[in-house]
Design goal:
Layout: H1 3-24, H2 28-65, H3 75-79, H4 82-98, H5 114-146, H6 155-161, H7 163-185, E1 190-196, E2 210-215, H8 226-238, E3 243-247, H9 255-262, E4 274-277, H10 281-284, H11 288-297, E5 301-302, E6 306-312, E7 315-321, H12 339-342, E8 351-355, H13 359-366, H14 369-372, E9 377-380, H15 392-398, E10 404-408, E11 413-417, E12 435-441
Parallel strand pairs: 1-12, 2-3, 3-4, 4-5, 7-8, 8-9, 9-11
Antiparallel strand pairs: 2-12, 6-7, 10-11
């Protein structure tokens, strides 16, 4: 191994080890800042390796299909040859992809910066291209292994002869998925309606249905600005819900940077109130205490392992919210999921609704006999439905529930997981997965 490479590897190891130790010895705002920085360093390190791989593959395809101009041509034509232009564009693409995460720290304001949007969009194309290139290589090398065991006119011979085309096809598909995702996120969110029966509603004198608008994963940040939030608020208010529930992941930054973008949230209106429970991003990307103060100024009720008893349309409700599962690991004093505390005053003769950002928290409730007796409906988000198609299998593996309405017959409890009204980071999402959930409880 080259001595320079060895030194670089040692330096990278020392930096990551130092960051890990620093994270363990801090808490509160200092901890979350170190966490963000360390996440950025980890991402950058992984991307350096991936970019080297991507550069080698794509440059091979470009130089094979578009060789340098003939030396007899003029120097000016040589400098303007297609290969040079293609390699320059590839370098620019990789560079903008690498700096995408820095836009969580710079050029922040009420509306997304055009450079930030471009860079964050490219990182989505980058992820897709990387996956497609790996698939191309897996197929190529697998057929190479079995090539000698089959006829000479095998699939591998075809792949060898057309390898450059398949590499460029992977690049093309990556950008196609990016543009399709951009279209999805630059159109209005879908209002997805569902009806859920509530056993405690039966026989209530003078009672009627109660509606809830569920907003999850708003992700105000470098790619989600004020105009997008205004549209979401207007669409939500137009539904005239009795209750509005914000189930975590409100913002990916500090109040000082995104208060202007978040300001339209102050116009959310519901007779039964607007409620908020934290998600993991409140602890990873911002100062949760400052966001609590901002939301309280907007008359949004914070459910910090708390609940509130209300009566809406003659129905007695207990709306509870628990800190996110990540809160304990975030080292923020006074924060950590406490489901028993969140549901402490909810009783079995009321209809009890729990806001728990991660669906795995819903599983904890359903598998606890005492807690499950106190909950009728759990509202979650977090999964984004996968956000991008390649990640759908991962969210299915990592989460107890992924998207939509679920019913647990053992506890007679419903769970609804929203794919989120927005997206994290890259403004890319699968078709129909930016959604406002409108629940009619009957």
């Amino acid at each position: 191994m080259n001595i320079k490479l060895k030194i670089a590897l040692v330096v990278i190891f020392v930096i990551h080890l130092s960051m890990a130790i620093a994270r363990k010895t801090t808490d509160g705002v200092e901890h979350h800042r170190l966490l963000r920085l360390h996440t950025l360093l980890i991402t950058s390190t992984a991307m350096l390796i991936a970019s080297f791989y991507m550069w080698k593959r794509v440059t091979f395809a470009i130089t094979t299909l578009f060789p340098f101009s003939s030396p007899v041509r003029s120097r000016r034509l040589r400098l303007l040859c297609f290969q040079d232009i293609a390699l320059a564009l590839l370098f620019l693409f990789l560079f903008l992809s690498h700096i995408a995460m820095f836009f969580f720290y710079v050029l922040l304001g009420p509306e997304p910066n055009v450079i930030a949007i471009t860079s964050l969009s490219f990182i989505a194309a980058y992820a897709h291209i990387l996956i497609f290139l790996v698939l191309v290589d897996i197929i190529f090398y697998f057929t190479k292994l079995i090539h000698n065991k089959v006829t000479p006119n095998s699939v591998h011979t075809y792949l060898v002869n057309n390898r450059s085309y398949h590499i460029l096809l992977a690049v093309f598909l990556g950008f196609m998925f990016m543009f399709a995702g951009l279209y999805s996120t630059h159109t209005d969110p879908i209002v997805r309606k569902t009806t859920i029966p509530m056993k405690n509603f039966e026989g209530t004198v003078g009672g009627s249905n109660v509606s809830i608008a569920l907003l999850s994963d708003i992700h105000i940040g470098p790619s989600v600005g004020r105009s997008r939030i205004r549209k979401i608020v207007d669409m939500t208010n137009a539904l005239k819900p009795d209750i509005i529930a914000i189930a975590g992941d409100l913002a990916d930054g500090l109040v000082r940077d995104f208060s202007g973008a978040a300001e339209p949230l102050c116009d959310l209106k519901a007779r039964g109130g607007v409620y908020f429970a934290t998600g993991n991003h409140e602890y990873m990307h911002g100062n949760v205490t400052e966001w609590f103060a901002f939301l309280e100024d907007c008359n949004i009720t914070i459910l910090h392992n708390q609940n509130k008893h209300i009566t809406v349309n003659g129905q007695k409700l207990c709306v509870a919210g628990a800190d996110d599962l990540f809160a304990l690991r975030a080292h923020v004093p006074g924060h950590g999921m406490d489901l028993k505390k969140a549901l402490s005053t909810c009783t079995t003769d009321t209809t009890n609704i729990l806001l728990a950002h991660q669906p795995n928290a819903a599983k904890l409730v359903l598998t606890d006999h005492e807690l499950s007796q106190k909950v009728n409906l759990i509202l979650s988000g977090h999964t984004h439905g996968g956000q991008m198609y390649p990640f759908v299998p991962i969210v299915h593996i990592a989460n107890a529930f992924v998207r939509g309405r679920y019913y647990d017959p053992k506890t007679d409890t419903y769970v609804y997981v929203s794919a989120g009204v927005n997206y994290f980071g890259p403004p890319i999402k699968m078709f129909g997965s930016c959604e406002i959930i409108f629940i009619n409880m009957i």
